[in-house]
Write a structure and sequence with these properties.
This protein is an alpha+beta fold. It contains two helices and five strands, in the order αβββαββ. It has one domain. Strands 3-2-1-4-5 form a five-stranded mixed beta sheet.
Length: about 90
């Protein structure tokens, strides 16, 4: 049996400086999506996930950075990587 193993480093699993990070935040009856540049403070909030992902993806492609969803303080999901879509 043949197995192909790909080495995955922490760099591949976490945002780099300059990458865009989106997180969902719920408060009472309202959910907002907050965008920031890693590492840094919150920058922009959006009312819908679609609106947030569209804006983040457009910005990321313009500046050549990646887009991540924050699932927790140290848990991220890569959403868009311009280097892989070329």
């Amino acid at each position: 049996m043949l197995f192909c193993l790909k080495e995955v480093s922490l760099i591949d699993a976490m945002p780099r400086d300059g990458d865009l990070v989106l997180r969902e935040e719920a408060d009472d009856d309202m959910t907002v999506y907050i965008l920031h540049v890693a590492p840094g403070p919150d920058r922009i909030s959006f009312e819908t996930r679609k609106e947030a992902l569209t804006a983040a993806t457009e910005m990321a492609r313009r500046f050549g950075v990646r887009v991540w969803l924050a699932n927790g303080p140290f848990d991220f999901t890569l959403v868009d990587d311009p280097e892989r879509t070329r």
